[in-house]
Amino acid sequence: MVKTEKVRTFEIVGTILIILLGSALHFTFELSYNNRFVGIFSAVNESVWEHMKLAFWPSILWMLITIIPLRNSVNNYFVAKAVGTYVMVFLIPATFYSYTSFTGESIFLIDIAIFVVAIVVGQFFSYRLFNYKKLPSSAAIIAIIALVMLAAAFVLFTFYPPHVAIFRDSITNQYGIPSK
């Protein structure tokens, strides 16, 4: 049975934490003097892909923090968190490329709004799935595998990004971790 008020409070706190931590991770790679380990979790350049990491890693952290306090209060914990995280991560490029196809350029305030809205929408999806009928345990396994695969992609493509637009630094036109 879903304990609505407790879960709602956790999801609101999570939304704020993910936004704040994701915003901080925008700067931590540079502040760490380009530490490669820090680069796994931080934006290493100004590509759209690297900005997707700013939503992904904080949402994973929040998922890990809330497993114990929420596990008996909600349905579909891992499915809800996986869907919410994927929504966040995919809304960022979808909305970015949609609006820049019309404007022809990136607008800083819109980019920030996209990040915030993506987090809010992802957390909303997560909350709604907590209240959905209980899914089979195989759904949780699939959700965990999907999150692990996305985490692996973020790590791999931090160091070995394909040379396609989503991975290109909009300032330097380089890919991946900047050379020293």
Strand/helix succession? HHHHHH
Number of distinct beta strands:
0
Report how far the terminal alpha carbons are from each other: 53 Å
Rg value? 17 Å
What does this structure look like?
- By secondary structure, the chain is mainly alpha-helical.
- It has one domain (4-167).
- Helix content is 72%, strand content 0%.
- It has helices spanning 4-31, 36-41, 48-70, 77-103, 108-130, 137-159.
- Helix 1 (4-31) runs antiparallel to helix 5 (108-130) and helix 3 (48-70) packs antiparallel against helix 6.
- The longest helix has 28 residues, at 4-31.
- The N and C termini lie far apart (53 Å).
- 35% of the residues are buried.
- The model has no long low-confidence stretch (mean pLDDT 93).
Strand-helix topology:
Layout lengths: L3 H28 L4 H6 L6 H23 L6 H27 L4 H23 L6 H23 L21
Features:
about 180 residues, mainly alpha, globular
Q: How would you summarize this macromolecular structure in one to three sentences?
A:
The chain has 180 residues and is mainly alpha-helical. Helix content is 72%, strand content 0%. It has helices spanning 4-31, 36-41, 48-70, 77-103, 108-130, 137-159.
